[in-house]
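>> received
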Amino acid sequence: MNLLVSAGPTREYFDSVRFISNPSSGKMGYAIAREAAKRGHKVTLVSGPVSIDPPAGVEVVKVTTAAEMAKACKQAFKTADAAVMTAAVCDYRPVERLAYKRPKQQTQFRLLLEPTEDIAAALGRRKGRRLLVGFAMEDHDPRAHAERKLQKKNCDLIVLNGPENVGSDQASVELFSPAQGWTGPFRGTKAQIARRLVRTIEKLLEESTE
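>> returned
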């Protein structure tokens, strides 16, 4: 299997040094990439800024912004059999980025934002027979929101997790696919969750070629 994994946050700058972002650590995506490589798969890991050593045997493409991540994922997806989109891509970016550090002033500062591209949805529109796994970070009405995301992004499997998983070495997730419905919750270390997810992806790929 040739697997694409996205991981970590993106940073969207509004001047030369300041940016908006989120607290994603990248641990889940890195764990999935590491497990897939251990099981003999070819892995391309498109990673936002994180403080984690690259997994052995994995091709790592480092990016910073959502636009850079979208470009790298689209390129890697061309030769992928499956993609797992764990990255916490910023939903918005500043409309303008100053080329210098904005001086602090004792007045209100309004920042105009525009939506970033939905990378998983972009891959979903072009996936063909390839497998697409999305992640849904939800803090209310989680299952309904996750199911809508699966349909909107044309995913084959959605992984539902909550804010309590961010930055932790532990995780609790639920899985949803149209064929199997909801399974879980599955709790354990992110390495254990990654092991389950990689094996689930392997099984789904096998079933799609039968």
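>> Residues 190-208 form the longest helix (19 residues).
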